[in-house]
Amino acid sequence: AHLARIEAVDEKVHAFLHVDCEGALAQARAVDEKRARGEKLGPLAGVPLALKDIFTTEGVPTTVGSKILEGWIPPYDATLTKRLKAADVVILGKTNMDEFAMGSSTENSAYGPTGNPWDLTKIPGGSGGGSSAALASFQAPLAIGTDTGGSIRQPAAVTGTVGVKPTYGAVSRYGMVAFSSSLDQGGPCARTVLDAALLHEVIAGHDPLDSTSVDAPVPPVVEAARNGSVTGMRVGVVKQFRGEGYQAGVIQRFDESVELLKELGAEIVELDCSSFDLALSAYYLIAPSECSSNLARFDGLRYGARTGDDGTHSAEEVTSLTREAGFGPEVKRRVMLGTYALSSGYYDAYYGSAQKVRTLITRDFEKAFEQVDVIVSPTTPTTAFAIGERADDPMAMYLADLCTIPTNLAGNAAMSLPCGLAPEDGLPVGLQIIAPAMKDDRLYKVGAAVE
Ligand code: GLN
């Protein structure tokens, strides 16, 4: 049924870069056969899922939304892919994304944009716009995203779906193409809080193949999602997450959510986290710096596309020509920014200062979590904007992640879930819930209570 739905609507939505009909049907049949034999089934047996095209899939193309990996067929599965298969999930295909997960609209995909199912002229968020659009257009009940600065939560917010960025290190990065390794985190996307929890439990957990993987039990997220409650909880509202640039309807729905939390028995605490004002600037030095280093491996020799390999160019020229042809403008902008910020003479002023700001943000969160159990905010300052509207203005695009980025810099956990439609445009608004590191279960407990 889901393959038929994809067939019927994805020409318009363009959520998928690759639909793996054969693979999906084979996985579904394998589940049926297991069931017929009376074998024990995985926890998500037969449930279809849309996988962001940043995770390697053995024998199935993985492009990261880039021309530089066009035609590359990975010889191995990411740890996350393996865990999905072990849970008997049916992987429908790979979803569209901003190239190398750099963007907030999916317009930076080398394979064309994805439409927001609520209004196809609007962006579905980014970088994981393919995954969020697949959920919102009922092409898949579950999806996977990755969140470096907001790429799970912002797409969830603008498509009226649920997205969770788990604690940094909770979900293995092995086989997840690296953008900014100290920030990147895979996580679950779904249409309900409980669905997200069921997927979270399957993909999280220690992986010896990822050196930053957390070696601790997965927080009880499913139990929390089944027992939503905020009674007696202290909920923080951060002063810095409102003001100029926030759409009136977004603030209205957010304020109503805070009222609802109060009615349900939460105590609201006002918080002042002044370092959050610097988060965006710090992020746009740290993320490009790490990206300039991570993307050095795309040299035209190891993977995917190669340009200028006609016997007339040196290896160095082939690398240069391949990168020139293979990377899109946003990726080039970031590699150049990062190379500059890391260069000797500028390192202290840019990368060094950004790391100091990162420490301040972590401390502001620590202080906040001495006073509250969770923090709430709008997920994004505005609802979905029009395709093309911010395409030529990187600064305007970067503002979409104003509320999501502090969490990535500090490494703690956050969720976005729908909290109504903005009155002025009828588009979905997201409520963000933020919890301390390894307290991911609190997101689900609060999320299930207000859903
Ligand atoms: N929009 C942010 C960026 O462009 C975040 C991307 C992400 O989380 N992958 O870097």
What are its keywords?
protein biosynthesis; GatA; binds glutamine; 38% helix; 14% strand; alpha/beta; 451 residues
Topology of helices and strands:
Layout: H1 2-13, E1 16-19, H2 21-36, E2 48-52, H3 79-86, E3 90-95, H4 129-136, E4 142-146, H5 153-159, E5 162-165, E6 186-190, H6 193-203, H7 221-226, E7 234-238, H8 248-263, E8 267-271, H9 279-294, H10 315-326, H11 329-342, H12 348-371, E9 374-378, H13 394-398, H14 405-410, E10 413-421, E11 428-435, H15 440-450
Parallel strand pairs: 2-3, 2-4, 7-8, 7-9
Antiparallel strand pairs: 1-3, 4-6, 5-6, 5-10, 9-11, 10-11
Helix pairs in contact: 9-11, 9-12
The structure holds glutamine (GLN).
Task: Write up this protein.
The protein is of the alpha/beta class. The protein has a single domain (1-451), classed as Amidase signature (AS) enzymes (Alpha-Beta Complex), CATH 3.90.1300. The protein has helices at 2-13, 21-36, 79-86, 129-136, 153-159, 193-203, 221-226, 248-263, 279-294, 315-326, 329-342, 348-371, 394-398, 405-410, 440-450, and strands at 16-19, 48-52, 90-95, 142-146, 162-165, 186-190, 234-238, 267-271, 374-378, 413-421, 428-435. It has an 11-stranded mixed beta sheet. The longest helix is centred in the last third of the chain and has 24 residues, at 348-371. The structure holds glutamine. Glutamine binds next to loops.
